[in-house]
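Reviewers of the previous submission asked for a worked example of the structure-prediction workflow described in the proposal, so we include one complete record here. The input consisted solely of the amino acid sequence. No template or homolog information was supplied to the procedure at any stage.
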Amino acid sequence: MTQPLPWNDLQDFLAVARAGQIARAATLVGVDATTIGRRLRRLEARLGRTLFEQTREGQVLTEAGEALLAQVEEMQNAAERIVEARGPAESLSGVLRVSVSEGFGTWLVAEHLQEFAAQHPALTIDLAASSGFLSPSRREADVAVLLARPRQGPVVAGKLSDYALHLYAARSLIARAGTVTRDSLGDRHAMIGYVPDLLYSPELRFVDDVGPLPTPTLRSSSINAQARLIATGAGVGVLPHFIGGALSDLERVLPEVTIKRTFWLVTHRDTRQLRRVRAFSSWLTGLVAKHRARLDPPR
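From that input alone, the workflow returned the following structure tokens.
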């Protein structure tokens, strides 16, 4: 009699297939990499097949791995539907993983997330708000808010909102070093910006929107760190209006400069109909509509 495959082994296989690296999968599922590696070897031994090829970048599915992935994803989707069906129609449970940019996640979503959590106390919500995104197409996240519409992959994307960015300086800097002008940037007023080779999205390059500006001499991969640097009077930098406009000690400078970008709401096409995914997507869309002026203020 054939022994059934352990569900934990299949879930770990799924995590590695989606993450592309054992170490990254271990972080996502909360299990150490050694345990995941052992389970993968056990799974391959039981199936008598090699599921991954080791590359410099990580683990790449073999043909046998691709075939197993399709089956395990069907099992995972069925399991999630069973879990949802166990509770009342209005009850949500399980884990919802949401991937957002650091600024949007910190300054808008986290500020109001308790409202959604209070409505669904049995639901565990993972808010991944960082410099980078988890991939809905690889099922690393249930819902993602991205800076660009995905051009491929098994996802469904819709425009969430436009948002505006401006140049900001601390009032203390202006009082100390004078009015900010294009000529004063890089001289009396240092520039603050991203570390070029650590940009996680091309939408964070602003040179085409604001024209030539001095190269930033204070740089960070974190928009929150940039906001703190600007607020302390260290220099001038670009911030989303929902950050710069919320800091009372900042002043918008070079008012003719307005940069526009777009947030896209992205879900996986196989799980977008799960009640917890639909509920959060609806809540987030409503939140953004309510706070539209913070994101994209009228001129």
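The two ends are 72 Å apart (CA to CA). We consider this example representative of the routine output the project will generate in years two and three.
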